[in-house]
Amino acid sequence: MIKEFLDMGGYGAYIWPSYGVTAVVMIVMLVTSLRGLRENEVTLQSLEVSTKDKPE
Amino acid sequence: MKRKHKRLTFVGLALLLIAAAAALTLRAFEESIVFFHSPTDIVEKQVSATQRLRLGGLVEEGSVEKHPDAVVKFKVTDMANSINVSYRGILPDLFREGQGVVAEGTFKAGVFIADEVLAKHDENYMPPEVADALKKSGKWDDMSKEMKRQGHVAGETPK
Amino acid sequence: MLHRFANPTRFLRIASVVQPWMAWATVLLGGAGLYLGLFNSPADYQQGNSVRIMYVHVPAAWMAMFCYSSMAIAAAVGLIWKHPLADVAAKATAPIGACFTFLALFTGSLWGKPMWGTWWVWDARLTSMLVLLFLYLGYIALVNAFDDPTRGTRASSILVLVGFINVPIIKFSVDWWNTLHQPASVIKMGGPSIDASMLWPLLLMAVAFTTYYLWVLLIRIRTEIIANKIRIARLKQVHG
Fold first, then answer.
1. What CATH superfamily is the domain B35-150?
2. Where are the domains of chain B?
3. How confident is the model at residue B136 (pLDDT cuts 50, 70, 90)?
4. C167 interface with B at CB cutoff 8 Å
5. Neighbouring residues of B11: CB distance < 8 A, sequence distance ≥ 6
6. At residue A37, what are phi and psi to the nearest 5 degrees?
7. 3-class SS of residue C23
């Protein structure tokens, strides 16, 4: 039953890589974007703290 | 005129010029942009024997003959003209009579000797039951006639 | 009207509200689309189960062209009206659009092999799609080539606008020239030539891909706005 589903009438070798690579690319894009945002937020915060500490 | 408007006019004009340039370029290179020629194109143009080209059209109903040594002979047609094709090799899953096909090769004594055969499918997607129902009700013929009229399956660009 | 949304601070506030909605929409619509596409839709009368590649291939190809068109509009707004947020939106869209273009080419290749009998042909549709990928990569390289981000913007916006001519060429390549690729099935005169049982998963996936784009776009625009603030803060530090 499961084997039959994975085989997809002989086209499994083409269908699953299509879905797999699409999922991987979209998830990697999302994760790197989120990580970039976090990193920049942290940098900005530390910059704001250090400028406040500076004596005028 | 405000600077904003000046920039808007400038960008608009530039885009128009680029579009015109692109249209002219594509028109000039039309012959190399088309992926294949229909049987009528080939009959009318009288191609030279050594010229490598791609022939596209439908596999004529009842024309497929399988010979030993994996040699397949069939006719490619666009309903106006048809050309004999001989091919040795593995055919794509979609290859069947009445199906769109693109063959690449050269002419030898009036027969097109193909070394590659690709299947071309149409833009209709439906489950087999729907296809059967359409065939039964006779709507299938109307549909395929319409497709042929549009020239997609016969491999001609709509005029 | 446009200026109200173009204000970065106000934009950041709106973005943080909209972003979770886009995330949920992507997960729910994408889940429904995958369920229908893989488990609950029929095989094609000609192509069998291989037709299921359509549910990722076609949305990726649509988004590749949609992202580029959005970039071209943003670049034009940035050039003409000098909205800094428009330039940021164009820059943030490019990597997402490049990913969609790559996916359209990759899944198309995997679909072409069993159906057409080839991974790749140089027909007008496939070639113009490859040109689109190069346009994205060229833009990304150009916009990041300058240390001062304002200097790269103008050149790269012009590149995007010049390259926009490729979008109608992709769309109409299958009508203008003989191609191996078949003509459009959904967006065409006389309505879609695709059965409803296959159109639904396709449309669900297409909407999910769109909300995914908006989701990642918001994240990347926020990142760019913060990066600008960092640049200003650093300049202040240096100049005391």
1. Nucleic acid-binding proteins (2.40.50.140)
2. 1-32, 35-150
3. confident
4. no
5. C76, C79, C80, C161
6. -65, -50
7. helix
Whether A22 sits inside 8 A of C107 (CB atoms) is: yes
Encoded tokens for A14:
């083409």
- pLDDT for res B155: 37
Per-residue pLDDT band for C210 (boundaries 50, 70, 90) equals very high
Give the H/E segment covering residue C154: helix C149-163
Angle ∠(C116,B116,B32) on CA atoms, nearest 5: 85
Q: Which of residues 139-158 of B touch C (CB under 8 A)?
A: 152, 155-158
Quote the tokens at residue B63.
């024309």
3-class state of residue B16 by DSSP: helix
Output the pLDDT for position C49.
93
- The CA-atom distances, in angstroms, between A46 and each of A41, A52, B5 are 9, 10, 43
3-state SS class at B66: strand
Distance from CA of C34 to the nearest CA of A (A): 9
B140: pLDDT strictly greater than 70: no
Q: At what angle do helices C84-116 and C149-163 cross, to 10 degrees?
A: 40
A21, C120 contact by CB (below 8 A): no
ipTM, two decimals? 0.90
Using CA atoms, how far residue B135 sits from B141, C26, C48, C220, in Å, is 7, 39, 18, 51
Q: How far apart are CA B113 and CA C80, in angstroms?
A: 57
pLDDT value at residue B112: 92
Distance CA C50, CA C108 (A): 11
pLDDT in tens, C123-155: 999 999 999 999 999 999 999 888 776 778 888
- Give C40-84 pLDDT, tens digit per residue: 999 998 899 999 999 999 999 999 999 999 999 999 999 998 888
Residue A16: which of B152, C110, C149 has the closest Cα? C110
For residues B33 and B25, give the distance between their C-alpha atoms in angstroms, rounded to a whole number: 11
**Mutate which of C45, C109, C216 to disrupt the A interface (most A C-beta within 10 Å)?**
C216
Q: What is the mean pLDDT of chain A?
A: 89
pLDDT at residue C92, as a whole number: 96
Query: Touching check for C49 and chain B: CB below 8 Å?
Result: no
Measured distance CA(C199)–CA(C138) in Å, rounded: 35
Reported as a single tens digit per residue, the pLDDT across B25-62 is: 888 888 778 889 888 888 887 776 678 889 999 998 88
